[in-house]
Amino acid sequence: MDAELFRKVVPSECLGSTWGKRKKPSKEHLAPTVRATIDHFRRVASLVVTTCFGDPSMMAQDRVRVVERWIQVAQVLPAGAR
What is the pLDDT along the chain (82 residues), one digit of tens a residue? Predict the structure, then answer.
């Protein structure tokens, strides 16, 4: 999914800080491909954090196993998807 989003990024959206202006009123439509990439990254990061720290009853060794699993997932991803 990451690789597909990166392929869709329009280079002109990265120039002149266009993507940085996307939160200003009436500028929400700017840099949609960059916005999609950022939103996807935030969702994935949130998923990782939630699975590692979302359950207060998890013991430290359980958290270690979850982090190790995420590392394994990242290692098997195709190079173009990282």
Answer: 777 887 888 877 777 666 566 566 666 677 788 888 888 889 989 999 999 988 999 999 999 999 999 999 888 876 555 4
**What's the rounded Cα separation, in Å, for the pair 70 and 49?**
10
- Domain limits for position 51: 2-81
Overall number of domains in the chain: 1
This prediction has a pTM of 0.65
